[in-house]
Amino acid sequence: RLGNKLLIAMARSIPTVGGHASDELRELFWEAAQQSHSYLMLNHAAIELGAAQVRAGAPLDGLLVLRSPARDWLLRGDARVWSVLHSMALGFVALGDVETAARLAGAVGDRHLPFVSDRRRALLRLRLDESLAGAARARHETAGSVLDAGTAVAEALERIEALAALASADAAASDVDPSHLTARQLEVAKLVAQGFTNKQI
User: Fold this and answer.
1) Which of 17, 164, 171, 186 has the most CB atoms in a 10 Å sphere around its CB?
2) Distance CA 201, CA 196 (A)
3) b vs e for 131-152, b when ≥16 Cβ sit within 10 Å of the residue's Cβ?
4) What global pTM score does this model have?
5) Distance separating alpha carbons of residues 76 and 192, to the nearest angstrom
6) Residue 57: half-sphere exposure toward Cβ, Cα within 13 Å
7) Portion of the chain with pLDDT greater than 70, in percent
8) What contacts 47, CB < 8 A, 6 or more positions away?
């Protein structure tokens, strides 16, 4: 009733905690957060939106959304950056990049994570248990445990960019119509498929 955009964003954030909100409510929260001009609300809304996309089967899209709060909270020296890294770890697991997920899980460790429920912590442990053998998981988590927030965020962002570039290249390749290629281009494509290097071709 007051029309205070920050209060509206806060009110819309309450049902999203714990993952029980509808997609429509999350979108309303995102819009209200943008209008509130509050970095806290924007970051919180981005985490909710990114995590929802991961759960909905679009993990790369979710990871791309999570970049912004990771950068912002790192630059502000805010400990909530570890909560974003935990959400990113779930995204990497969903993408099948379990080594990166285990490194991030090791970096996060047993830190206090605002906005991360015990259920979501357990979910990450379960996903890692299902997809990575004990010794390999321990090796990656141990390597991650020595990372500070800056290094962990930098590694995660670099990996996200690499995965996004790979997905973009795959999408571009699938758009090529073989009937539009010259005989030489088809020959080169066949050689590449057989494993020949540029120099060999």
Assistant:
1) 164
2) 6
3) bbeeeebebbbeebeebebeeb
4) 0.76
5) 46
6) 0
7) 75
8) 66, 69, 83, 84, 87, 115
In this structure, the chain runs to a length of 201
More confident of the two residues 129 and 31: 129
pLDDT greater at residue 151 or residue 187: 151
Q: What single string gives the DSSP state of each residue in the chain?
A: ----HHHHHHHHHGGGTTT-S-HHHHHHHHHHHHHHT-HHHHHHHHHHHHHHHHHTT-HHHHHHHHHHHHHHHHHTT-TTHHHHHHHHHHHHHHHT-HHHHHHHHHHHTT---TT--HHHHHHHHHHHHHHS-HHHHHHHHHHHHT--HHHHHHHHHHHHHHHHHHHHHHHHHHT--GGGS-HHHHHHHHHHHTT--TTT-
Asked whether residue 55 carries a pLDDT value surpassing 70, the answer given is yes
* Structure token pair of residue 105: 């899980």
Q: What is the mean pLDDT of the chain?
A: 82
Percent of the chain predicted with pLDDT > 90: 43
Amino acid letter for position 91: G
Cβ atoms of 68 and 104 closer than 8 Å: no
